[in-house]
Amino acid sequence: MKSSFADDVVDLLPNLRRYAFVLSRSLDVADDLVQQTCEKAFANRGSYARGTNLSAWLLRIMRNTWIDRVRRDRTRGESIDIADRPDAIFTDGARDTETHLMLGTVAHALQDLPEDQREIIVMICVEELSYKEAAATLGIPIGTVMSRLARARTNLASRLDLN
């Protein structure tokens, strides 16, 4: 009984998978490569000359498919699995833009504050110094730090319409 083209290809699947793994060094990529090879083989089965070495023909298709994939990947750049970048999974473009604009607005409002208020806001809120550390850095009493900070926060909130 004469075997069909499909049966002959199925019989060669283990060989194809082995060769695909040798090329790709990854089981997932190897499985994809075998599938692409089979798709191309069935799509172009009319160009296969019956009686010639089917294994060699399939391996040639696979090798050419692999070369095309490597070339495509080189021009595409590095591919990173999304599981390796948890910070990139849930990004909200609108929220990121809004945050960026708000930070710009705050930076401008901060620049408009008097120097003593701007200085104390940066030390306490940005540099996260304690009141005692800020007082020692500026050479002023802690009470002065607290009152400047209160005035700076009030002034900043009014400039940002947060009152």
Automatic annotation (TrEMBL):
Residues 106-156 form the RNA polymerase sigma factor 70 region 4 type domain. The keyword 4Fe-4S does not apply. GO terms for biological process: DNA-templated transcription initiation. InterPro entries: RNA_pol_sigma-70-like (IPR039425), RNA_pol_sigma-70_dom (IPR014284), RNA_pol_sigma70_r2 (IPR007627), RNA_pol_sigma70_r4_t2 (IPR013249), RNA_pol_sigma_r2 (IPR013325), RNA_pol_sigma_r3/r4-like (IPR013324), WH-like_DNA-bd_sf (IPR036388). One of its GO terms (molecular function) is sigma factor activity. Keywords: Sigma factor, Transcription, Transcription regulation. Residues 12-74 form the RNA polymerase sigma-70 region domain. The keyword Kinase does not apply. It holds the Pfam family Sigma70_r2. Signal peptide: none annotated. Belongs to the sigma-70 factor family. ECF subfamily. This is RNA polymerase, sigma-24 subunit, ECF subfamily protein.
